[in-house]
Design the sequence.
């Protein structure tokens, strides 16, 4: 009888474990992926690439956690982080919509990286500035539910704001708690949006609406650039894209080393912070890279926590990264 009871108990535990392992939780799991070479993934018209060394990009595996992983942290992959659903999916957004958004951000990142790299190398890039594109909306911020990722803010109180700097200046002229009236281009039409401002946590006298923006522009490149990372999405490969374009056009950015990089590029060349630095750093480390370029600030501090001997190079712009690699290359 005791044996039968024990067998039944073990069977029940096995069934419960199987159910918990297969049922998805609401949260997401970020886990490391190995850094990968961009060789053959970036093609540039008239390329004369430097022969030695490689530029690597880093990505993160993102998937729904299982109930078991949520309950028992030791069942999660090595180096994984549990991320709340609301941090990735604003209320009412589906997984499919998030995937489409990341695909669009990748396309935009490819064009911006190409423009930034070519300009830094002395090419003439034709750009028509069209507004400030919303790249992220803070959950529960004043703009949550009013602005959407992909919106382009073209005016404040009827006055054109064709650049992110002009948008920030227009909002910055108010006091926290004031309303701001925005004209937003959405799905080809202009939409009026009214939202309140709140104090910036890092500067209580500075008003914000809880969004991140980038330059929206029509860009014409002087040479053809093709970039293909398959199913990888998001904007965080902008910096390695631009470095690889520079390498393809003869600039020695690697000096025989393997250089990994991550960072979202703005059209002015500035490098913006990205997510998943713990996993990306572990991925760069597992690929035995010689150096890892990351956005300066919190991203570089987090990268150093997990670098385990991999040199971390913080940068604030592509221009700075290019100078750093060409004039003071890492030892490898």
Sequence:
């Amino acid at each position: 009888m005791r044996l039968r009871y024990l067998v039944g108990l073990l069977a029940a535990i096995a069934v419960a474990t199987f159910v918990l392992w297969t049922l998805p939780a609401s949260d997401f799991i970020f886990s490391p992926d190995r850094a990968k070479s961009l060789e053959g993934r970036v093609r540039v018209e008239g390329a004369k690439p430097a022969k030695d060394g490689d530029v690597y990009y880093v990505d993160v595996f993102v998937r729904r956690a299982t109930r078991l992983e949520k309950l028992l942290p030791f069942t999660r992959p090595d180096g994984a982080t549990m991320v709340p659903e609301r941090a990735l999916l604003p209320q009412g957004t589906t997984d499919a919509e998030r995937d489409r958004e990341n695909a669009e951000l990748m396309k935009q990142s490819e064009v911006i990286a190409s423009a930034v790299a070519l300009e830094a190398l002395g090419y003439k890039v034709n750009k028509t500035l069209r507004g400030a594109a919303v790249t992220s909306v803070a959950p529960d911020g004043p703009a949550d539910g009013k602005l959407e990722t992909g919106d382009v803010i073209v005016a404040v109180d009827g006055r054109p704001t064709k650049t992110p700097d002009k948008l920030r200046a227009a909002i910055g002229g108010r006091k926290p708690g004031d309303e701001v009236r925005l004209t937003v281009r959405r799905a080809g039409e202009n939409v009026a949006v009214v939202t309140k401002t709140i104090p910036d946590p890092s500067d209580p006298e500075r008003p914000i609406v809880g969004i991140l923006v980038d330059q929206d522009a029509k860009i014409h490149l002087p040479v053809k650039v093709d970039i293909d990372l398959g199913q990888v999405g998001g904007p965080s490969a902008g910096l390695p894209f631009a470095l690889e374009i520079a390498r393809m056009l003869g600039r020695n950015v690697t000096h025989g080393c393997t250089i990994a990089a991550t960072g979202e590029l703005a059209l002015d060349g500035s490098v913006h912070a990205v997510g998943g630095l713990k996993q990306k750093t572990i991925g760069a480390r597992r690929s035995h890279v010689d150096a890892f370029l990351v956005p300066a600030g919190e991203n570089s501090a987090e990268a150093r926590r997990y670098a385990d001997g991999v040199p971390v190079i913080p940068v604030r712009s592509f221009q700075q990264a290019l100078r750093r690699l060409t004039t003071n290359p890492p030892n490898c």
Observations:
- The two ends are 67 Å apart (CA to CA).
- Residues 15-21 have pLDDT under 50 and may be disordered.
